[in-house]
Amino acid sequence: MEISNSLVRFSEHSTVTLVQQIGGDDTVLASMLVSTQAEASLAMLEEDAEGSEGRIRYLMKNRHGTPFEHNLFTFFIQAPIFVFREFHRHRIGWSYNEESGRYKQLEPHFWIPPMERPLAQEGKPGAYVMVPVDKQTYMTTIAILTDSYRYSYKRYENLLELGIAREVARACLPVAIFSSMYATCNARSLMAFLSLRTESERALFKSTPMKEIAEVADKIEQLFAEAFPITYKAFCDYGRVCP
Amino acid sequence: MEISNSLVRFSEHSTVTLVQQIGGDDTVLASMLVSTQAEASLAMLEEDAEGSEGRIRYLMKNRHGTPFEHNLFTFFIQAPIFVFREFHRHRIGWSYNEESGRYKQLEPHFWIPPMERPLAQEGKPGAYVMVPVDKQTYMTTIAILTDSYRYSYKRYENLLELGIAREVARACLPVAIFSSMYATCNARSLMAFLSLRTESERALFKSTPMKEIAEVADKIEQLFAEAFPITYKAFCDYGRVCP
Amino acid sequence: MEISNSLVRFSEHSTVTLVQQIGGDDTVLASMLVSTQAEASLAMLEEDAEGSEGRIRYLMKNRHGTPFEHNLFTFFIQAPIFVFREFHRHRIGWSYNEESGRYKQLEPHFWIPPMERPLAQEGKPGAYVMVPVDKQTYMTTIAILTDSYRYSYKRYENLLELGIAREVARACLPVAIFSSMYATCNARSLMAFLSLRTESERALFKSTPMKEIAEVADKIEQLFAEAFPITYKAFCDYGRVCP
Amino acid sequence: MEISNSLVRFSEHSTVTLVQQIGGDDTVLASMLVSTQAEASLAMLEEDAEGSEGRIRYLMKNRHGTPFEHNLFTFFIQAPIFVFREFHRHRIGWSYNEESGRYKQLEPHFWIPPMERPLAQEGKPGAYVMVPVDKQTYMTTIAILTDSYRYSYKRYENLLELGIAREVARACLPVAIFSSMYATCNARSLMAFLSLRTESERALFKSTPMKEIAEVADKIEQLFAEAFPITYKAFCDYGRVCP
User: Fold this and answer.
1) Residue C130, phi then psi, degrees to nearest 5
2) What is this structure's pTM?
3) How does pLDDT run across B196-206, given as a tens digit for each residue?
């Protein structure tokens, strides 16, 4: 059986693109103030939110979460399937639409670890430490992974050439293959995601996320910080706990 | 004990104000097409969605719901508590912040039925028909309701004057008192709401919502129809079933 | 117009009855251990969970929440509407079915504050303190509330006698009227509820819930403590933060 | 580099084991009847639900969904990752805990299609038909898949032997590898799952699920039918639409 040649790509990083965004510190304030000001709270949407930093900090400190829900972020994310597998466990306040291995042929695009990624694991479940490997071991790792990816993808192509349905043929594709999706959330579900999927000195509750989802989370955090400067600062100052 | 005089207001109708909105037929298309086009789907956001009406109708007909989630509506709604009580049972894809009877004194603003509201109920649970009453009965109804509202509100004021906390004093206020809230949803959760809270000849599954929540739903429907013309038409054409 | 006499009841307390319950510390363990033991985790369901207290404490401390979801509590709760209004804002992991003011005539059963309930409010929004009142003020409060409830209920009966539909007539009923509902949750959504609706010295994040929902929460807490002794202890020891 | 020999297993089928279950047609009835009977609805839990078949059918027909939520199913499911990827898109009313590729070495256990599985795909996206292939093509498919799986797994072992962390080494493993999870739902979220993941002549809205998730769904359906005989019959009779 002939094995066709495909242009295989390897990427060390995921990408996050902001598709659309609405709401900000001002909608946090307006929706918070409806409790005491009713209709007059609408005026907050016309004002500068900066003068009300204390109120947002109060919400964050006391974990009043709902005012952070009246807003939206839609991201277009490209990442390997093993990252999306973790991502999709965030059920509440997240909407997803993903590239389909049933309806399209998947591209030969695979994740490989960057040089700086600590590759060796030491310790027991629940108390792992990831440590770096020497350059030789890194190169061997890359060689093994890319070889395996190439092999799997050729087998995928063999099956497609044989007339086998994509949804069956893809069974041999590795979890490192890139996929893409639209992911929509609000600032509250976004903060819940950050609290679990980033690693930070400032976190009151420490998390040890996998580096590859932490990379996606860091990019999302950047976009969040820009859209909600006051909320973001309060989130960090109060231990990165989702309100 | 003195009973103070307050400026009591009566309203026959609820109000719905659109605070913010993002996303539309184009984001439905883009997120739908990620399944077969991956990154290329982003181009749909630049194009006119009209040429893709068939695709949106396909989603609606086959109940593929997730592409309708990448968008947002925030409404400011003023309605009596008995309407909000039904509204808040919509848990999924809805965010709420409401005026508080603990943190502010509630205004003496109450709902009364409009003349055209059928007031008498005939039939058994699950098979009610609401029928009109004569003008005299309508006038008596209004007289009884407004008298009761006034009485309750005066008692509320008595308690506040006595130094009793708002959260206790409000216990005597009627469910017809107006409240206000921010409510945020997406097109999918909005359609689920409409399918249960409107009454329509075109509905595949008939609903018999209370008139007062149907009034709010009708106003929301209007705003939805403007923001998602293709999706809205498909929703109506396929029996007003939430995808 | 005649005002009929109804047997009006006043209650100082809400009730919580456990209808059904399944799952416990053992299902927390089994579902936690699937991550490292796959099928072998099923054996945990046969074992005594006590020997694994450390594992459950680890989950709680590190806020791994999902293992606390594979279980169920169904409560039958009787409480005034103003309590249910707060209760129903818990959207995630909670299911509700409540008595209907549209489909049945509501009973003349109303809440009144017990003697020990601090009735006066001092301070500003976000920093209230509730303080006791003297006996005379308490008696006056009860007199005003019960008078108002009686008046409203008579007006409700007047409207029903006139042939007005229950859903319209109930508009004048106060938020202190008792209602009843089935509420179903899991240990995780239950802990989220407790973290916000109880007041405790041991809470890492202080809450100032209304006394009347705190009373319901305390009763739920009791039932939770019995069903999940290890989980409950860990919840308290780690600051009553929902994992 | 040595390539070690592992005992590789291939399975044609997924498994579903019922771990625990509570609630049934009687809790549907009790929670439904609270609307008209309040506390008296509790008596339904002592009675035979059969006499109330009409009421459950009424709920199903009119899509009153909440009474179907006061119950629980926990399943232990073993299936390939590409099935779990679809499964986890069911966010509402579902709880998951899955075997971890970060915390344990994954077993060399892979899915292969059974002989009767139509393997060839004809038609366009949204209108596929799966058709059978001849025996020779089937045998070639199995040969290619198992060869690819074996190759990937050996590469995985090579990386582990090199000291590379499991979470990195697993990147080359295929989506056909078996995983296991606890999945908890209620009858309503279960019916939503069935309506989308089974293929049935009786469905009002046709679905074309992937065969491998439909197999899991069929097994879940069986367990549901046993636990909720009246509800299940109504679900089928009214077009298998989730209420």
Assistant:
1) -95, 130
2) 0.96
3) 999 999 999 99
Residues B84, B89, B90, B94, CA torsion sign: positive
Query: Which residues are within 8 A (CB) of C39 and not within 5 positions of it... i.e. 6 or more apart?
Result: D76, D78, D180
Could you report the predicted ipTM of this complex, rounded to two decimals?
Answer: 0.94
**Of residues A97, D197, D88, A74, the one with CA closest to residue B35:** A97
Minimum-distance CB partner of C63 among A36, A63, A205:
A205
Q: List pLDDT tens digits, range C94-113.
A: 999 999 999 999 999 999 99
Chains interfacing with C (3 or more CB pairs < 8 Å): A, B, D
Band of pLDDT at residue A2, cut at 50, 70 and 90 = very low
Mean pLDDT of chain B, nearest integer? 94
pLDDT tens readout for residues B97-123: 999 999 999 999 999 999 999 999 887
Which residues on chain D place their C-beta less than 8 Å from a C-beta of chain C? 17, 19-23, 27, 30-32, 34-39, 41-42, 45, 66-67, 69-72, 74, 76, 78, 95-100, 103-104, 107, 180-182, 184, 186
The answer to whether C130 touches C118, Cβ cutoff 8 Å, is yes
Per-residue pLDDT tens digits for A71-112: 999 999 999 999 999 999 999 999 999 999 999 999 999 999
Kindly state the DSSP code that residue C174 receives in the 8-state scheme.
B
Both tokens of A161, joined, read 């050439």
CB contact under 8 A, C184 and D45: no
D145: number of Cβ within 10 Å: 26
Q: Which residues contact D54 (CB under 8 A, 6 or more apart)?
A: none
Residue D197: active-site member = yes
Catalytic residue among D55, D170, D188, D197: D197
Whether the Cβ atoms of residue C62 and residue C239 lie closer than 8 Å to each other = no
Compute how many other C-beta atoms are within 10 angstroms of the C-beta atom of residue B19: 19
d(CA A203, CA A190): 15
List Cβ neighbours of B136 (8 Å cut-off, separation of 6 or more): none
Instruction: Give the mutation candidate from B27, B31, B78, B91 for the A interface (greatest A CB count, under 10 A).
Output: B31
